[in-house]
Structures are given as C-alpha cells and as structure tokens.
Design brief:
Belongs to the universal stress protein A family. This is UspA domain protein. By secondary structure, the protein is of the alpha/beta class. The chain has one domain: Rossmann fold (3-Layer(aba) Sandwich). It is built from five helices and seven strands. Strand 3 and strand 4 form a beta hairpin. Helix 3 packs parallel to helix 5. About 6% of the residues have low confidence.
Length: 140
Amino acid sequence: MSGVVVVGVDASASARKAAEVALDLAESLGASLHVVTGFESESAETFGSGSDQVTVFRGDSAQHVAESLGASRPGVQVTHFASRGKPADSLIKEAIRLDARLIVVGNRRMRGIGRLLGSVANSVAHNAPCDVYIANTYED
C-alpha cells in the first residue's frame, strides 16, 4: 500500500505520540505522512524555562512536528498543513483533498468526562472518507 497517511497534531504530548505512531505506519506501508493542525483561534503556548523558552503558536504545531519527524526518519516523506477551523473538520478536509488512505488520531478526551464533551477522534471516526487508526496516547 502506498499513498498518504494523515495525522492530526497540536502542541500536546498526546498528539506527539499519535504522530510517532503515524510515522511508523507510514513507513511500514510505504506511504508519505501529512501532519495537520486544525485550530479555531490562534493562541500560543510557551515551553521550557529561563532562557530556553520557546513559544509555539497553534498554527505552527504541524510544521514543528513534521520537521522533527522528517529528521528522525529520512526515508519517509513528511509534509504539513495548518488550517483554521475545527480540528476534526480540518483533518477530514485534508484527507479528502489528498485522497488519503488512513487518518491517525490520538485517543485524548475519549475517557471520562471528555467523552461527554466530544473528541476529535470520535468525530473523525464517524465522518472520515478513509480508514481511521486511533492511537493509544494515554500514559499507563
């Protein structure tokens, strides 16, 4: 199988785990990886401490993750895209645009009260134009 694997990310550790799973899947399938960030409003998060701080804007998350994943596995073509809108809608639109074979999402907000509030994974699973892989990103 070749084609495109699409993964949704934000600046969270959970999304980073999902992206790493997506990279493994893309490599094993001989596919390229397309990293997508969907955001409803632009905001920033600061990581690090002291003079080693970096500010990451939501729209930049896809680029940062894509660059680090591409550097770790040069055999896999990694691209990125940021889209203003609901994250699930952004993933689905990109999957349609690229005729993706697979969408990978993390399982954040699929337990406890988060299930009542809704999750990106749930929304994508119900509306995706292709297969969906929900990566376990919870800590044991």
